[in-house]
Amino acid sequence: MSDVFEGYERKYCELSANLLRKCTSAGILNGEQKKQKLAEIKAGLDEAESMIRKMDLEARSLQPNVKAVLLAKLREYKSDLNNLKSQVKRISSGDPTSARDELLESGMADAATVTADQRGRLLMSTERLNQSSDRVRESRKTMLETEELGVSILHDLHSQRQALLGAHNTLHGVDDNIGKSKRILTNMSRRMNKNKWIIAAVVTLLIIAIGVILYFKLK
């Protein structure tokens, strides 16, 4: 449904109800007061016709399925406007008593129809408002649930970050221990190599000494 059309529709219904009241008043007036009231009614009819034209243009600019519904409503409003024009003509030229009685009878029926129509639109508006409120509540509920989920995820990420920092510190300590062990092993390797050279030198000296001793004994 078009919001623009609904705005024109509300305006027309208000004009129609106001014109009905003025027609009822004009039916019991005479002389200049009646002429003045009829002038007001004719000005109101012109404004009502303007609303009808605006509704027609707006309805024809919409999609076909919406357009068909609005044009059907528009035909009812055009019929209502024609009835108002006929009543004004009868008041202007007919017998005051019969015109007044006919106007009161038809005016009450039309007023009841307009009132029922306005009540129906009011109920529809209230229902749409309630539906909108329900959607707002659902959206707010979803937003709160999403917020709680986000807080939970942030808490989990913080816990994981702390665990990763702890693991990093542990790995850093392991690296330090590995470095120390590597230095110790390097020192041990150097000492072992040094001891090998010392042992080799001692063995060499012993072999030379034994050779010298054997040489002098056998000589």
TrEMBL record:
This protein's species is Kalanchoe fedtschenkoi (Lavender scallops)
Q: Which UniProt keywords apply?
A: Coiled coil, Membrane, Protein transport, Transmembrane, Transmembrane helix, Transport
Q: Which residues cross the membrane?
A: 197-216
- Membrane topology, record value: Single-pass type IV membrane protein
What GO terms in the biological process aspect are recorded for it? intracellular protein transport; vesicle fusion
Q: Which PANTHER family match?
A: VESICLE TRANSPORT V-SNARE 11-RELATED, VESICLE TRANSPORT V-SNARE PROTEIN VTI1-RELATED
The protein depicted here goes by the name: Vesicle transport v-SNARE N-terminal domain-containing protein
Tell me a Gene Ontology molecular-function term this record carries: SNARE binding
Q: What is the lineage of its organism?
A: Eukaryota, Viridiplantae, Streptophyta, Embryophyta, Tracheophyta
Chief subcellular location equals: membrane
Gene Ontology annotations for the cellular component aspect, listed alphabetically = endoplasmic reticulum membrane; ER to Golgi transport vesicle membrane; Golgi apparatus; late endosome membrane; SNARE complex
- Coiled-coil annotation reads 38-94
